[in-house]
Amino acid sequence: MSIREKIDSRTATVCVVGLGYVGTPLSVASAEAGFKVVGVDVDKDNVSKTNSGICYVEDKYSESLLPGPWQAICPRHQ
To answer: How far apart are CA 1 and CA 56, in angstroms?
Structure first.
């Protein structure tokens, strides 16, 4: 299956590196659009907060949709 077909069918996995003021809303929007999303950040506390549904960035859009159907990971602490 081509990448275009995966995007069109929403079977592609989106990986967002950095879950700050850009990455968190991007992850939430991608998950809401139907993609499987993995967010990666080096801050273990922020990853834990995100997975618990706590939005540590000031973004009402993301706050209203967390916890979402996506996973945040911290490669330093796995």
So the answer is: 37
